Known about the structure:
Elements: H1 2-11, H2 18-29, H3 38-47, H4 52-76, H5 78-88, H6 92-102, H7 108-115, H8 120-130, H9 134-159, H10 164-191
Helix pairs in contact: 2-4, 3-4, 3-9, 4-5, 4-8, 4-9, 5-8, 6-8, 7-8, 7-9
Amino acid sequence: MLRSLYDWTLSLAAHPRALWALAIVAFVESSFFPIPPDVLMIPMIIAAPRRAFLIAFVATVSSVLGGLLGYAIGALAFDTLGFPILEALGKGDAVLEFNDRFNDLSFWPVLIAGLTPFPYKVITIMSGWTGLPLLTFVVTSIVARAGRFFLVAALLHFFGAPIRDFIEKRLGLMTVLFVVLLAGGFFAVRYL
């Protein structure tokens, strides 16, 4: 079923209203949909590289707005909607264990999930559930999602289709390494 959902999402890239489809996918992916907007972004940017940064902007705005829906689900309907969504993603047990430490980590979980392949929807729901300050959530979401989507757009804009394999197979790993180095740098400055 997930493969057919993935293929359907990918087929939207060729639709005349692909930008609207991207906005919808980016919005719902931030709160419950399992397929990331990158699946649509990549073929859209390859087809129209001059629109790369508009596509990244639409994905960013829609994703952050969808993140607010995820935050609301966590804050207002965790037991009825939030936890069942997280369980369906296989994150139910991990979320319950992580709950106590979530807000102690401040903006880091939102930044890491927004930049990396980790399901952003898990963090949006958790942010609302644990009461992470809304301003912290919104600002970090904007930075993280813009960083991710504009990086993909820039790579495709400047390097075209040949960079597609790198983005699909290795960009997640490279982003995780960047976040680890960034966090390590903050740790070193603070404690060393």
